[in-house]
């Protein structure tokens, strides 16, 4: 068999796995909780119980499985790893190829509401000149691209895999977009294949100060507020420390307890300021279900350990035109972003949040269209 072959793929979860999930949820051994602590000790017990009951009794995996199977999906082997991806070609002959990269704890399903408007703007009230051929891979170790089978699948290796994937699909000139971890992977792809990537667009972009005090002088009021968000993030950053240091230890709980996995993810999908259910709970549970049903929750968090030595470290400045969208709650400082990227577009928005593709997909689509309009 040719390992470079691209093979059609359909999601087909055995019924016994769905029955096992419901049985495990029904038999959850719940922890106690201190009175009156709210979110200060982590995601509250009643919130996880509510989501778990919805997952067990109302959430319909088969409906979402059918919905996702409405998109053409494929697998191929790259550098010894199976890579799953959604690939939807536009009916417009001059469409620009665009690779979309999700973050954690997300999956390719985050982009499902954007695929139609991006690939066929004519059918969605847009300008056909803004059309894209969309490629949305599952990050190695995540969902149907998992688990990883050997060490070494960090950000640089994934970026090289993305460049190879686009080459196999016959795309020599393309754009890249990403959020969360994808907001680091998309620029890294630009550094890996600068002659092929015409532009990079990111949201939920992670920026960190270099440590030079001069870098903090004269920051705007908005950037000072975002810098304060970074400092405040320490209260919630324990997950990153664990995943960057001891992912295997955590993996046992994530693999054995659906309620435990749900709580670990719900702590991120819910806003700690009290904005609960800002994201459709079925969208959240689709991501949670993909990780549970593929057994890749532990494999996915290994990406943090694999990339721990480069988080926040200096990188060569990319010359690829880069656009940044900032949504509420994003701790994205323009000065820090400009240190590493050639920023040619910057937009700030009052709607949405960290998971903007799930919260305001129409707005994200519009911003992507506008950024790439001058790069085609």
Task: Describe the overall structure.
The protein has a nine-stranded mixed sheet, sandwiched between helices. Helix 10 packs across helix 11. It is α/β, with parallel strands linked by helices. It has 15 helices and nine strands. The radius of gyration is 20 Å and the shape is globular.
Key phrases:
single chain, 376 residues, alpha/beta, 9 strands
Summarize the structure.
This protein is an alpha/beta fold. The chain is built from 15 helices and 9 strands.
Number of strands: 9
Q: Stretches where pLDDT falls below 50 for ≥5 residues?
A: none
What is the ordering of alpha helices and beta strands? Answer: EHHHEEEHEHEHEHHHHHHEHEHH
**Share in β-strands:** 5-15%
Q: What is the radius of gyration?
A: 20 Å
The share of residues in helices is 40-55%
User: Tally the helices: what do you get?
Assistant: 15
Give the overall average pLDDT. 93
- Strand arrangement, largest sheet? 1-2-3-5-4-6-7-8-9
Distance between the termini: 37 Å
Q: Quick one: overall form?
A: globular
How would you characterize the largest beta sheet? 9 strands, mixed
List the helices and strands and how they pair.
Layout: E1 7-9, H1 15-26, H2 45-57, H3 61-68, E2 73-78, E3 81-88, E4 96-101, H4 112-119, E5 132-137, H5 155-168, E6 174-179, H6 182-192, E7 197-203, H7 221-232, H8 238-245, H9 247-256, H10 258-269, H11 281-294, H12 297-306, E8 321-326, H13 334-340, E9 342-348, H14 356-359, H15 361-372
């Amino acid at each position: 068999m040719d390992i470079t072959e691209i093979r059609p793929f359909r999601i087909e979860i055995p019924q016994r796995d769905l029955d096992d999930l419901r049985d495990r949820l029904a038999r959850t051994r719940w922890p106690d909780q201190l009175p009156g602590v709210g979110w200060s000790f982590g995601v509250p017990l009643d919130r996880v119980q509510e989501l778990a009951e919805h997952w067990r009794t109302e959430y319909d995996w088969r409906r979402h499985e059918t919905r996702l199977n409405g998109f053409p999906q494929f697998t191929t082997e790259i550098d010894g790893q199976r890579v799953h991806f959604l690939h939807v070609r536009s009916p417009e002959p001059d469409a620009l190829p665009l690779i979309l990269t999700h973050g954690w704890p997300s999956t390719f399903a985050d982009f499902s509401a954007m695929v139609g408007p991006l690939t066929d703007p004519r059918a969605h009230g847009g300008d056909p000149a803004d059309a894209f051929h969309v490629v949305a891979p599952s990050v190695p170790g995540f969902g149907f691209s998992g688990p990883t089978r050997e060490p070494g699948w960090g950000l640089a290796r994934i970026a090289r895999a993305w460049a190879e994937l686009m080459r196999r699909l016959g795309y020599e000139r393309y754009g890249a977009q990403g959020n969360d971890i994808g907001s680091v992977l998309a620029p890294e792809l630009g550094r890996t294949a600068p002659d092929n990537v015409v532009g990079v667009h990111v949201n939920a972009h992670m920026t960190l100060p270099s440590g030079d005090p001069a870098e903090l002088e004269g920051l705007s009021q908005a950037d000072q507020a975002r810098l304060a968000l970074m400092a405040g993030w320490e209260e919630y950053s324990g997950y990153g420390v664990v995943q960057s240091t001891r992912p295997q230890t955590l993996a046992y709980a994530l693999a054995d307890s659906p309620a435990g996995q749900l709580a670990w993810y719900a702590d991120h999908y819910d806003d700690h300021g009290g904005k609960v259910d800002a994201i459709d709970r079925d969208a959240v549970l689709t991501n949670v279900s993909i990780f549970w049903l593929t057994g890749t929750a532990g494999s996915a968090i290994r990406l943090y350990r694999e990339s721990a030595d480069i988080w926040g470290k200096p990188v060569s400045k990319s010359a690829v035109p880069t656009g940044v969208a900032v949504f509420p709650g994003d701790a994205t400082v323009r000065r820090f972003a400009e240190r590493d990227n050639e920023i040619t577009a910057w937009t700030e928005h009052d709607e949405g949040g960290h998971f903007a593709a799930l919260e305001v997909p129409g707005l994200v689509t519009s911003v992507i269209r506008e950024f790439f309009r001058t790069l085609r």
